[in-house]
Amino acid sequence: MTDQMQTYEGMFLMDAGQPDFEAASAPVRNILTRYVGEMLAFKLWDERRLAYEIKGRKRGMYILAYFKADPQMIVEIERDCRLDERILRSMLLRRETLTEAEINAEPPITSGRREDRYDDERGFGQDDDDDRRRPPRRRRDEVEAPSDDETGVSTDEDSED
Fold first, then answer.
1. Whose C-alpha in 4, 60, 87, 124 is 20 to 30 A from the C-alpha of 54?
2. What is the pLDDT averaged over residues 88-115?
3. Strand partners, 49
């Protein structure tokens, strides 16, 4: 079994409603400990507002895991992830090469980089997740047509000498 071990990267999306990382990551950790030969890394990657609701959730906690496992066990891991209602989504990828720097890379949540929020320069505050207001759109019949003077178009009456 050890000679068939492959290195994998797993990204798991969990409900962000659980404030404690250990409690929130327990379902993933339990599944992986059953099937994985060696856990290389297991960490919180980020917590973000989702682009669309998944199982009624608007925010998600992403957990990143690197591990070594028998390729035949990956099907079992994916199956258990689909069956566990606490895991919203999962993705497992086989990694041919994986450096120590990639495993120990700092996740966005600890680096201070937040891609899902607008900064103050763009007009929205750090905590404005759902309060992004746009000015109301004007209907076509409300838009005034520019006059000839504004468009710079000359008419035949202007060109008479």
1. 124
2. 79
3. 59
